[in-house]
Structure formats: structure tokens, C-alpha cells
Specification:
The protein is about 75% helix and about 0% strand. With about 200 residues, the protein is mainly α. The protein is elongated.
Length: about 200
């Protein structure tokens, strides 16, 4: 299965599931109007995205599919106003996840969990400007009408030490999301032979 090339049906599935996953990203991002949700975005996205992503894996267990999905969702992220850094992260973490899924031959539950946790980290790219381009990022927020109270809260929540914590939060979200996805889609997992 993993030696087969992606076909037209696979590409259609990639497109459909990328849009579904991006909707989960959008919902997760909308929660960012509450400051604490800005830093737990990877957790929320990991959980919400777990169902469409795990279904996607059972439908398209071929190398390259997750990389393309990473590219698509990160480009969509960029098009709605996030940093270009998200595209780099989408490519890198999509490809790394693809390698992990392939190493498990698209049948290993352990590799599925690890792969999804790695994939979830792509979203850090959309958040990274809060740490590496801090002044420019928050000044842009001010010019777009952000209140000082909100900006101050987010700045406090995104102090330097929080970046490693956000990475860990992403892994936790990935674990919760993939287990939720498996629970909801148990029949699909059995049919795909993922154990």
C-alpha cells in the first residue's frame, strides 16, 4: 500500500480532508479572542483536528499525502493572514509525519500516534512571530484595532519560556486528538487494519 503512488482519488481526498482540517484550525483560532486560548491553540487544534485527520489516514495511507496536506493547510493559514513561517512549518512537519507513518507502514498505532503529534506541530509556525518578531507582531495587532488590555494579556501569556511549553501542549493535543479520532472512527480503523 505504501509503495503505491498517489492517484486522482487520493488527491481529491487530500483536498477534502485538508479543508475539513483547516476548518478545525479556523475554529481553534477563533477561540483566540480569549487570551488563554492563544497559547493553547495547538492543544485545541490537536483535539479538534484528530477526527478528520485520522479518517484521512484510513482513506489515504500513501507516502506524500500528509506532506501535501501540511502544505495546503499552511498555505490556507497564510492566505487568511498568518505568517509565511507557517508554510515552512507545514512542509517540514508534514514531511516528518509522512516519514513516521511510512516507517509504521500505515498500520502501526504507535507510529500513527507519534506521526499525528509531529504533524500537529506545524501550527507553531503561525504562532512563532509572537516570540521571534514580538514588537512587529503586537504593533500590527494594535493597528488592526486590538485593545491594550487584550494585547497585554497575550504578551504576558507568550513570554519566552512559554514557547517550549506550547510545543509540549501541541504533543498533548495530538495524543488526545488521535485517540479521540480512533474512538469515533473505530470501524474505519479496523477496516484499514491499523493496530
Amino acid at each position: 500500500m505504501d509503495n503505491q503512488k498517489l492517484n486522482t482519488k487520493d488527491l481529491i481526498n487530500i483536498g477534502i480532508f485538508s479543508v475539513l482540517y483547516f476548518i478545525m484550525f479556523f475554529i481553534s483560532g477563533m477561540l483566540g479572542y480569549i487570551p488563554v486560548f492563544v497559547v493553547v491553540l495547538p492543544l485545541v487544534l490537536g483535539v479538534l483536528g484528530g477526527i478528520p485527520f485520522t479518517l484521512f489516514l484510513t482513506k489515504t495511507g500513501k507516502f506524500g499525502a500528509v506532506t501535501i496536506m501540511g502544505i495546503l493547510v499552511s498555505v490556507l493559514c497564510f492566505l487568511v493572514g498568518q505568517s509565511w513561517i507557517s508554510i515552512i512549518f507545514g512542509v517540514v512537519f508534514g514531511f516528518l509525519a509522512d516519514l513516521i507513518f511510512k516507517a509504521g507502514k500505515y498500520k502501526s498505532w504507535k507510529f500513527t500516534v507519534i506521526g499525528y503529534c509531529v504533524f500537529t506541530e506545524w501550527v507553531i509556525g503561525s504562532m512563532l512571530p509572537m516570540w521571534i518578531m514580538r514588537d512587529v507582531y503586537f504593533e500590527a495587532y494594535r493597528t488592526q484595532g486590538g485593545t491594550e488590555e487584550y494585547i497585554g494579556s497575550v504578551m504576558n501569556l507568550t513570554s519566552g519560556f512559554m514557547l517550549p511549553a506550547v510545543v509540549v501542549i501541541g504533543f498533548i493535543g495530538g495524543i488526545l486528538g488521535v485517540y479521540l479520532g480512533r474512538a469515533v472512527l473505530k470501524k474505519h480503523f479496523q477496516k484499514a487494519g491499523i493496530v
